[in-house]
Fold this protein.
Amino acid sequence: MADFQRPTLCCCRKVLTVPSKSCEGGPAAGHCPRVDVASASNFQSFRLRHFHLDLRLNFADKEMTGWQVLELVSVQPGVQTLVLDTHPSLLIHSIDCKVFGTGGASDTSASLTYRVDPFTDYGSSLNICLPAAALRPHRAFQITVRYTTTDGPAIWWLDAELTCGQSRPLVFTQGHSVCNRSFFPCFDTPAVKSTYSATIRVPEGVTVLMSATRSVFSQQDQAYQFSMEYPVPAYLVALVAGDLQPADIGPRSRVWAEPCVLSSAVSKLGGSVERWLGVAEGLFGPYVWGRYDIVFLPPSFPIVAMENPCLTFIISSILESREFLVIDVIHEIAHGWFGNAVTNATWEEMWLSEGLATYAQRRITTEAYGAAFTCLETVFRLDALHRQMRLLGDNNPVSKLQVKFEPGVNPSSLMNLFTYEKGYCFVSYLSQLCGDTQRFDAFLRAYIEKFKFTSVVAQDLLEFFLGFFPELRENCVAQREGLEFERWLNGCGPPLSEPDLSPGGVLTGPVQQLCELWGTDTMDAQAIATFDLTSWSTFQTVLFLDRLLDRSPLPHEVMSRLSRSYSTLLDGMNAEVRIRWLQIVVRNGFYPDLPRVRSFLHSHSSRMYTVPLYEELCSGVMKSFAVEVFYQTQGRLHPNLRRTLQQILSQSSAPPLLPPPTP
């Protein structure tokens, strides 16, 4: 998943001894029983074999109504209650149970009593009293829950004016990390995987897509049938419905988008996705999900991209930048192996998904585009990691790879650069230990084959690593002083080591040289003029601007020269470049370029571009300007983003948020 979120502090896990042997049994073969404080469910007591959704989408009332059937087997004797994760926005109408007969006995059915209890601010617990027949160990039974969704965090209803085409409404779901409990009652933990199927009924003219391996449309019933034949965790069940059209871009890939976006998506990705999939398969083994399709969503999509199996969700705003699009799609492809096929068993170890996927992404880009490009992108990301480190401090517990959060803390608050980049550095260190990149590729292929369709913890990965390379176990690399595995997992601060990025010097060198020229007391205008930013890649330009932002505030004369040199040039570049220049403008209080900030916020309504600029505006001397622009543009913002920006504005010392005067 590609995401931009501010870090939230959390408590940290106690020391995990590595290596140690995995336990037998539990919810997944070869794994110890899991504890997930983010789930109210008693998932350890049952095995979920399959579930089916049958829902009707009502765009006028912004509701989904129907039922869910869960096929379960009790695995612990004496458990009389089934506890599922749900949400206050999900209204339960009734719950029934069918227990399958054995030895020729007939099935038995019954209506069940239940209650919904508070759990956290992101969910509730659904407690279902089971009949005696369902309590027998290894006895299969079905639970049918009839319900209606309302305004929950997983389901995003967009009025027509908030879509790209502004002609028809659209709805999508976003389950990561713990939101899908407002989509359907579930064991909302990555430790539990199951197959699923769905019947989705929609008005005429609405196209429905899901993260599923198979789909069929019945025009007579105006219903879509989906099935996912491989086990997935609840958060990877995703749906989108609206005015969507397809275009094939490869033998097993197509893009879906609103008609006004489709041609741009095809031109940016046509022919590339199959190449990337082929490279990934050569490195990590077969792509097991069959299809790899991509749906481009309106700017209201709350993150950049989401690795839903078979169907990556990605924000259409990213089409502006070819290089960022390439990286984000390749990252989501990498999740097909790391995160989707093999999943972190708890949200406290998200690096097992994001750190490994980031490493895999960079292996793919190295093979496809060369080491220099990969190193440039890595330098850019590690710069951001160290920037966050300076902000938080070396001893901040959020910088640990293996974290433990207290009950009530939303796992989404753990999504930060450490999950991605410190995790990537640890995986790179493991690669260095085995002495050969190709040998490590072979290990990763074996790791996927060993743990495919299961959920793991760090000790599973590291024990398998030391078993695959027995000479490393004999050399006690897990306890190497200063680089102990336990210290990697539980130590605060920056990565204990970083990979060699010198192959990127041909691209990062000019960036550093230009930064140094702008940092001298007597700037050499002639030398500066020899650097042509139009010949640079996007990652070079954003690295340059990020480093200027790090040095801000700058002297007014330097800002004036920067503006004269670059502002008009940058106006013609993509949004990833422009937002960084505008952050420099705001942080330095450079009023001559303020109209550019206004223009940008009037033309961009995605969270990834608006939130950083509003935060900059409200932390400096331009708070009144921020309030003014907000009132001018709020009608084009999704209500969730509007609330976020109102919170940013209210937390500052800006003028109070009063409604604009009636004309």
